[in-house]
Amino acid sequence: VRLGLSTKYYWRLQALGNQVPGPYSAIDSFRTRVVPCTTTPTMLYPVHKPLDVANKPILKVSYVSTASTYHFQLDTSNIAMTHLIVNDSTSDFDTTWAVTQSLKPSKTYYWRVRGYNPAGSSGWSQVDSFTVMYLPATPVKVYPTTNQANVPVNPLTLQWRHEAGDSNYIVQLWTYTSGGQVLTVDTTKHDTSWTIASGLNNRFTYYWKVLCYNQGGPSAFSAVDSFTTAIERPVAPVALSPKGTTDPSTSGGWPRRSTFTWKPATNAVWYHLQIASASDFSTASNIVLDTTMIPDTTFMIPDTLDAGTTYFYRLSAINLGGEGVVSGVSTFKTGTGVLGVSESAGVPKQFALYQNYPNPFNPSTTIRYDVARMSYVKVTIYDVLGRVVVNLVDGVQAARTYNVQWSAQRYASGVYFCRIEARPQDGTEMFSSIKKLLLMK
After folding, report:
1. What is the mean pLDDT of residues 326-350?
2. What are the structural domain ranges in the chain?
3. Comparing C-alpha atoms, which of 407, 405, 389, 394 is closest to residue 343?
4. Less crowded by CB within 10 Å, the N or C end of the chain?
């Protein structure tokens, strides 16, 4: 057997008689002849003057077969190596040296290494240097602000700002300054926020601070700030009307400018109403109206909906704690506002719009008009601001005299205007006329 040089071995003996083994002898050891260490180790880390070394670095060198230990020197001043802070050797065959004391941020250090065994040492390596990474500045807290009140929670995202390079962060959050449980997170990534999904109390005062750290070490903690969490989020409102296909007051469909009503929700300050043309509220194109910060439990929509159409709506309540859960989806169907359309025999000689009767009226009135030639006809009711209240007629009509009954049961008293537009299909001039209507309740 060819044994290695400068190696310690262990051995023992055992006698065999008539194929029966006897006991082993005591274990002994010996070391083979030592060959002088003449090969200088290669420095592996840190090398080539890096500027971002940790404040407790691990110095690494290459393995040398004839070295039993490695002698490291670390100096604070210059390549003369006259101000050593490390001047020591590793244990058997270990090619690393962990610096145990914290080196100063932004300071340059010098180091070298040589191999060693009992027969002698190799020459020193060339001196190399490294600089410990700068110490990061203290982060600046952004949200919540100092002594901020009514902070919504569950979730709550703490936010801060740091302007000097990549850093990791440690955040501490607790309920009072004198002690108690401290909620601590080490972000372990270059993030400047921490989201606490649940577990925080409403109407409670919390305290927090943050520090950042990098290879150079930790910054100081920011000053302690406090904030007070908001009231519990409100429960979902319960929709009252409109609902279904029939307006109980008219036995017809719901007005195209309906007033929405709902039960008040506990702790609510404002309400959020969404109306959609389909039950899928996640598709933006389905949303017809999205209004928030409604202060009351009634709301008349500002725009008219399409006639004879099914709509879907849902509600949520809002307070300083945030927006509560969304209610279930309710449905309703709009009417046309037209109680009936009748036509008379005979062909009028010219187009005309007559004064409605009765006028003033409450709640319904009849609007009469003549169509002299087959035309595309629109009969529309407007309010005094020029907004469309309802389209009574919208389509092609033959030459006749027509009577349209309009119910204004759910509209406010006041002045309205009826306008007719008739576009003859033979291409002759369009007819248009307006009459004033007075609803008195």
Report:
1. 81
2. 1-131, 140-229, 238-333, 338-439
3. 405
4. N
